[in-house]
Amino acid sequence: MKLQRAVFVLMGMMLLFACKSSAQQVKTDYDRSTNFAQYKTYSWEQVKTKDTLDVDRIKAAVNAALAAKGWTQVDSGGDVSVIAVEMTHDSRP
Is this prediction's pTM over 0.85? Predict the structure, then answer.
């Protein structure tokens, strides 16, 4: 259950890094009682974007952020699986 919460937190981080417009609202939520110090490794599950050029950019940004926190990327079977999904919503005034 804690692993799922960590994945949702990482998805929120991904949304922050994938933002293309400064006028966007970003909302995140996570279980504040989760001890993220217990997680040391991560592996990528998937990245879904409209622009395939963004896949490498998103991965590079998240890899750098997690490396700064002392996490290590592994090919598979990490403590946390990272999933990034680009979501957009157009609205007219």
Answer: no
